[in-house]
Write a structure and sequence with these properties.
The chain has 253 residues and is an alpha/beta fold. The protein contains nine helices and eight strands. The chain has a five-stranded mixed β-sheet, with helices on both faces. The mean pLDDT is 88.
Length: 253
Amino acid sequence: MLRIKDGDVFIVVYKSGKIVHNDSKASQQVLDVILKKEEAYDYVLGSDETGKGEWYGPLVVVATALTPDEIVELRKLGVRDSKIIPKPQLMELAKKIRDMKFLRESRILSPETYNDLYATFRKEEKSLNDMLAWAHAEAIKDLLEKVGHQRIRVVIDKFDVKKTESRLRGEMRERKIRDNNVEVIQKSKGENEIPVAAASIIAKYIFETRVDELNRKYGVDLRKTTPEDIDPKILPRVAKLHFKNVAKSISTS
C-alpha cells in the first residue's frame, strides 16, 4: 500500500489497484504523475469473457478501446482485476463505467444461441476455444474498424494463443483492416491491464443481469439450483447443454 499525505494531498494506493484520494488540485497533480499515461499507442484494446465456466446463463465477450486519457480515468475510478472486487461493488462500478463514452463492443450468446453455435462448431470438429476465439475476434475487429488506422495495442486475456491469433488475423484480412500498426498481445492475468479489466467488469455485469432476467422469466434461481431440479423443457433456454451435469439431467428425464 502506498499512502501520501502532505498538505492538500491525500492519496492511498492499495495493492489491489484501488485508489482513494481527496479532490484537491494538488492530489490530482500527484495522481497524474502516479498514473502515467501510455503514450506509445493511440488506443489500447482489451477483451475478456465471462460465463464460460457456468452451466447456466449466457456467454458474454466484451472488448473495449481506450485512449491513454481514458485509461487514467478508469484507474482513478478504481477499475482493477474483477476477481478481487466483491459483487455488490462490481455491479456499482460497472454502472459507472457503462455511463462513460469510451468505445466498446460485446457478443452476448444467450443459452439458446450458445447451444446452436456450439453444435455448429462441433460439427466442424472445432472446440469451445474455437468458439471463444471467434467471439473475441468479432468484437475486436469491430472496434478496429471504428478506431481506424492508428497506433493500436490489443491485449487479450490468454486462453488459446494459436486459435485466437489465427481467428483475429483472419477477420482482419477479411475486413481489409491493416495490421501493420496493430500489436496483439495475449497474456495470462490480462486483467492487470485496464482495458481488459474494464471489459471483464462490463462482461460480468451483463452476465449477472441476464441471469436475473432468466430467473424472472422462468421462475427459477439458477445460481442456487442444479440442472436436475429444472424442467428439462426449460433447460435449453437457460443452460449450456454440453455441460456434463446438464447433459446427464436431460438424458435421464
